[in-house]
Design goal:
Two copies of one chain form a homodimer. By secondary structure, the first copy, chain A, is of the alpha+beta class. Chain A has one domain: Orthogonal Bundle (Arc Repressor Mutant, subunit A), CATH 1.10.10. In chain A, 53% of the residues lie in helices and 14% in strands. Chain A has five helices and three strands; from the N terminus they run ααβααββα. In chain A, strand 2 and strand 3 form a beta hairpin. At the A-B interface, helix 1, helix 2 and helix 5 of A face helix 1, helix 2 and helix 5 of B. Chain B binds a DNA duplex through helix 3 and helix 4.
DNA sequence: ACTATACATTGATGATTGTCAATATGATGT
DNA sequence: ACATCATATTGACAATCATCAATGTATAGT
């Protein structure tokens, strides 16, 4: 995953409401109305945020009847997490990774 | 670390230039002019980005003579990484974490 | 004192963002 | 057909952002 993609994911996570949505989805799929009940925003605002989360690939949605089932996209999240884990601070002080 | 703090860090990482700065600092402390040489932005813009990275606690700076030595703040980065790692997708499919 | 270097600040500009009210779409049940 | 529920879209607004040119402020070397 390249730097631009990572920055897009970080932008999607840069809003507390969207972070809360991610946390709620941690417990499994949820529809929009369930998310809405647990948050302090209006329905259009939620729709806006879901679009942002889908746009960077973190969340997928499947329409089932009236409802949209949102879920965390495990692969995308793992790729993001791997990138974050790959950042190691001040290697210089630990033996060095660069010449 | 609470959700608001995490979102501030993500906002700081939501710009490709700032992500590049973080990567450059991975190899150890660097001064502003070194960073500037490796990037495609002007000096005021770099100064602006460094302020953003310091503002969320990801980067620390120490003035030594003419130079500012920037370094990744290991503790803050670790706390952020721990939060990201704590997010696990769709526990429902793995035994469930919620009732 | 003078010059050069490293960095910060200011001011301006165009772009993006988060939010909501209003409205539209689309599916379900009666 | 009609009413209801879930969600999307539009339009508007204030706020924030990324960027740069110009300028200011130190510090170091001569």
């Amino acid at each position: 995953m390249d730097t631009n993609q990572i920055s897009l994911i970080c932008k999607a996570l840069s809003d507390p409401n969207r972070l809360q949505i991610i946390q709620l989805l941690t417990c499994g799929d949820q529809c929009g109305c369930d998310l809405l009940e647990r948050m302090q925003i209006t329905q259009p605002t939620l729709s806006h945020h879901m679009k942002a989360l889908e746009g960077c690939g973190l969340v997928s949605s499947v329409k089932k009847g009236k409802w949209n089932h949102y879920s965390l996209n495990r692969d995308q999240w793992t790729a993001f997490r791997d990138y974050i884990e790959s950042i190691r601070a001040a290697c210089k002080e630990e033996g060095g990774c660069c010449s």
